[in-house]
Amino acid sequence: MLRDITIGQHFPGNSLVHRFDPRLKLVLTIAYIVLLFAASNPLGLTLSILFLAVMYKVAKIPVKMIGKSLKPILPIVLFTAVLNLFFVSGEGDPLVHFWFLSIYAEGVRYAVLMAVRVMALIAGTSLLTYTTSPIVLTDAIEQLLKPLGKLHFPVHELAMMMSIALRFIPTLIEETDKIMNAQKARGAQLDTGKMTDRVKALVPVLIPLFISAFRRADELAMAMECRCYRGGTGRTRLKVLRCEKQDYIDLAVCIACFAVILASRLVFPNY
Amino acid sequence: MADIIKVEHLSYVYNPGLPTAVTALDDVSFTVEEGDFVGIIGATGSGKSTLITHMNGLNKPTSGKIYIDGRDLWADPEKIRDFRFLTGLVFQYPEYQLFEETCYKDIAFGPKNMGLDEAEVDRRVHEAADFVGLDPALLERSPFELSGGQKRRVAVAGVMAMKPRILVLDEPAAGLDPEGRDDILSEVKEYHKKTCTTVLLVSHSMEDIAKYANRVLVMSNRKIAMYDTVEKVFARAPELLELGLSVPQVTKIFLKLREMGVDVPADVYTIPYAVKTLLEAKRRRDAGESLVLPRSAAQKGGAV
Fold this sequence. Notes:
The structure holds two protein chains of two kinds.
Chain A: H1 16-19, H2 22-38, H3 42-59, H4 63-70, H5 74-87, E1 96-98, E2 101-103, H6 105-131, H7 134-145, H8 155-185, H9 195-201, H10 203-226, H11 245-267
Antiparallel strand pairs in A: 1-2
Helix pairs in contact in A: 2-6, 2-11, 3-6, 3-11, 5-6, 7-8, 8-10
Chain B: E1 3-14, E2 22-33, E3 37-42, H1 48-54, E4 63-68, E5 71-72, H2 80-86, E6 87-90, H3 103-113, H4 118-131, H5 148-160, E7 166-170, H6 178-195, E8 198-202, H7 206-212, E9 215-220, E10 223-229, H8 230-234, H9 237-242, H10 249-259, H11 271-286, H12 297-301
Parallel strand pairs in B: 3-8, 3-9, 6-7, 7-8
Antiparallel strand pairs in B: 1-2, 1-4, 4-5, 9-10
Helix pairs in contact in B: 3-4, 3-5, 4-5
């Protein structure tokens, strides 16, 4: 059950997408999200999804992984779709009218588009985390946010917190699994019973989990101090991120694709 | 006595059907008689821990059957919880599962889940605390204030209080100091003697297995490599060494002595027995007997 969580998981490989400079990849992912909302017509969305499909193909990420990353957010997708379905009012007569609810053709259109858009959004950001290891990603974030440091924004600390948090996700999942097994061995009923019983049954799992998380935090802090960690100032890195010719070519190709998609929205706004 | 555990052709695969599928157990069959104290040894990754989580139905076999007390474990998946009380499982580092405000409440967690009444729960908590040598004054303290060894005792007591017919312990002495090791293991042995509970003990220490178990199950490469009495298993030292395992130090000394040509038995695995054997050998030498092993033909012909 817990092993199915994939958000933030890295899928190692050596494709063009994997090797692409993480800073540019991050910026392009954000641009892609903006694009999904800017190119809001069906044609624009179709092209955006096509672009993403090609990227997944190039990165050699199995299709199954997309499904895995979409599964946990399905309720949210359905929720937004239903909201749009009922609350977008269009012109003309409603398709269905029931009590105070009415569904317009416009509403159906919005609901479908919104659902597709949210799913593309998740699939797009998952591609970033699949192809970029968490450490590299936080490096990229740190570098991109560096200008904010001038305004006394704790950029390095933020990046360090992020990489530690990401690093501990699998550890904590494993730990939860172990504690659940131990409590089940003592007869705890974690997966059966009424909702209230199940919530109560989580107490014996959560308390040991929190305690061990704090213990780990303490140990990690000690280990970092022992290695003279004292924050970001004057810290140099082993691997310095550098954009090379290939990165610029990739960037150009992506920008061209985005421009075409955006243009399609402006040229054919009605499709 | 009757077989309390019967495992038939048990296989278990993690993540079946995925590219990450790993076989953890491969066609394992064995039986354990009621009242036995079985030591389980094997190199890391040999399948010991996976095997023991099958004993109370935390893992469901990919194929094969497990009978506990003559009943098929997975005949009715709804009833699997009954087996959790029949087979008490103490995991590695069990002190990390403590969660209650007081040790008393934590030990009572299992019995309460069994649906026992207050008086019975109370009786069992005190009994279990007594078995693991936990000072009754500590019962009202928070388990998080205790030392590592005491926490471990509380956790073991929490499983003993369910009065399981089979007690499975996964390295109960790991990470304790030598005195703590001996204490906790002798308490388990004492419990075993007094209650006739069948015990399965996973351990990396050959000395501990030799001292406490009467049978040894050797796991290697997801299969059972040996399953026999302690004497017979430790007499096969060369094979054990080949599996990346070891034999008790005293056994190593006796094997070396034999290699050097001294007539001593090879199945010595505890210190008291070693002392007895050596005294016996001394008596024989004093009586004028030769202690030199007859050399084999191959050795005679060599240019040593």
